[in-house]
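Project standup — Tuesday

K.O.: blocked on the structure for the chain from last sprint. Re-posting the sequence here as requested.
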Amino acid sequence: MSDSSPVRPAAPVLDVWCELQCPDCHTALDDVRALRARYGDRLEVRLRHFPLEKHKHAFAAAQAAEEAVAQGMGWPYAEAVLGRVAELDRKGEAVLVEVARELGLDAEEFGTALVDGRHILIVDADQAEGKAIGVTGTPTYVIGGERLDGGKSQEGLRERVEEIADRLLAEQQG
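H.V.: unblocked you, prediction finished:
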């Protein structure tokens, strides 16, 4: 028996290359929230990791974010950590576990994940892919093959992402 329901095309993808110890990514959070609210499941917004060497807790934060994804709360966790960038800078990895606990996640598992490095390959792969496509700083948005660098200024970026998303969605309608 065949299913005659129409196959829905895959949602356009917006990759947000981000670093969870980056003040500019914290600033960009309002735009990312607005995009997620506006498009819902019509646009797949993916958090991609691009930890910068100048932020010593960024690599651990990226691994912690992947543990949050594994526990089903990737975006809420990333948003909560970005809301505490200055504290992460001062207190380090303890903040990552504290945020997990506050969100009701298995904080002990976060601690273990940071020690055993189970998410390092994902973070490394994101970073390598980012470098390969020309990401040099965060936040950087990639949608419809276009790279938009938000590290210098967020000005007008959300509008540009919306233009591209709207065009991609219209093209899907045919």
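K.O.: great, moving the ticket to review. The first helix runs from residue 23 to 39. Residues 7 and 165 are 20 Å apart (CA to CA).
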